[in-house]
Design a protein that fits this description.
This protein is of the alpha/beta class and about 270 residues long. It has one domain: Rossmann fold, CATH 3.40.50. It is built from 8 helices and 7 strands. The chain has a 7-stranded mixed beta sheet with strand order 1-3-2-4-5-6-7, sandwiched between helices. Helix 2 links the parallel strand 2 and strand 3. Helix 1 packs across helix 3, helix 3 crosses helix 4 and helix 6 packs across helix 7. The longest helix has 18 residues. The N terminus is likely disordered.
Length: about 270
């Protein structure tokens, strides 16, 4: 019976968490959360760029890649509960940090908050990229976008402006259609994120590092300072919203994150 449970557990984890460069003897785990419409292909590959002390995984949401036949999640609570269930045992074993970009930053925040409130677990470092603090006024317009009234061509134009999607992929009608649908559904999930910072309540004690592209729209990263009693730092790297896909920026990010992790003194 226990054997069957373990098989189901690991299959469930492999479905939600992708870790192509497994390092069972690593001292730390870095869990990555991809952007809206994105999958695991880019961030999961970071595993080969880190030292042997860090095991890198990326979460995979329903509706994409090997989960493309599954229905999309309808709200942030569903996403958070699934990721937490898949990762909880792993996160109890050794220190962990989160990295999220854009939509992924908000998911990583929501998962971290749930872990802290329900299980007393906390990442020792949050690395957040291209995102407003969720309690800031700058985040409100995202929640006001009418998804159902937005035309497909307008969604596609926004995706093209953001960058990050190879132009050859957009030549395929099937891929383009699925990308638009995935982006819509991820935005729908993001709009269900509800967080109001209570006065004098600082949810985290971990360090937070915020990254942003120099040519991207400005994000209210200063407000992340309100959410932790730990240290906070900000870095602006050359490029637009998907600055992190530039090889030179990717090298900076992985080296800087490695340094932060290995210097955490845990």
């Amino acid at each position: 019976m226990m054997c069957c449970f373990l098989v189901v557990f690991f299959l469930g984890m492999e479905k939600v968490v992708v870790c192509p460069y497994k390092r069972p003897n690593a001292l730390y785990r870095l869990i990555c959360f991809p952007w809206a419409g994105g999958g695991t292909s880019q961030l999961a590959q970071w595993g080969k760029l880190f030292s042997s002390s860090v095991e890198v995984c990326s979460v995979r949401l329903p509706g994409r890649e090997s989960r493309h036949k599954e229905p999309f999640a309808k709200d942030m609570a569903t996403v958070v509960n699934e990721i937490t269930s898949a990762l909880l045992k792993e996160l109890q074993e050794k220190p962990f940090a989160f990295f999220g970009h854009s939509f992924g930053s908000y998911i990583s925040f929501a998962v971290a908050l749930h872990l802290k409130e329900k299980y007393g677990l906390e990442p020792f470092h949050l690395f957040l990229s291209g995102a407003h603090a969720p309690h800031s006024e700058a985040f409100l317009p995202i929640k006001m976008v009418s998804i159902s009234d937005t035309k497909d061509e307008d969604v596609l134009k926004y995706i093209e402006i953001l960058g990050g999607t190879p132009s050859e992929l957009l030549q395929s009608e099937d891929i383009k259609e699925h990308l638009i649908l995935t982006f819509r559904e991820d935005l729908r999930v993001l709009q269900t994120l509800s967080f109001e910072k209570a006065e004098r309540n600082i949810p985290f004690s971990c360090d937070i590092t915020c990254f942003n592209g120099s040519e991207d729209k400005s994000h209210d990263v200063e407000a992340w300072h309100d959410l932790t009693s730990g240290d906070i730092s900000y870095y602006e790297l050359p490029g637009g919203h998907f600055y992190l896909l530039e090889p030179s920026n990717e090298i900076f990010l992985t080296k800087h994150i490695t340094k932060c992790i290995e210097n955490a003194g845990l």
